[in-house]
Sequence to fold (186 residues):
Amino acid sequence: MQPVSSALSAKAQAVRLVVFDVDGVLTDGTLTYGADGEELKHFNVKDGVGIKLLQAFGVDTAIISAKKSSALSRRAHDLGVKHFFPGIKDKWPCLLELLAELEVTPDEVCYVGDDVIDLKVMMRVGLAVTPADGFWMVRDKAHHVTTAAGGRGVAREVADMILGSRMSLEEAYVKAMLPEFEVVRL
Fold:
């Protein structure tokens, strides 16, 4: 993990909710279709560990995606993501409703997005993050650009940044070594 500034660490420390876009963040953005037209997605296992670590330390996680797919629904379920919103083109109103439900302020949100559809949200939250290969306009507006490209460990890097602002990562990763870590909790 790259070193973070004290200002970025303070933003990370305040985070109570991390919201992920999917295509270009949790995937590399490639769209693959099977013979029957089913959309196939490739997810990184390291990202799954990062998402589960956030949850294990009391940080809520959400997925808001403009697309719907059965592969995405399955992945969200497998990771125990309770706040899953597929098919959302205007993400800000959706996030506002979630913030009210969770009693979280925008300053306590980390949003991870990669393209212009995400800017409306990213400009209004406490910590805006984009992958290394995020669209240039998004990289220019983000508080932090990961070293990882989309689908290559972005969520894990975000989790490390947030948890690392609160404790040693060695301490955090002790939970990932426990057998119950792999249990899905919804």
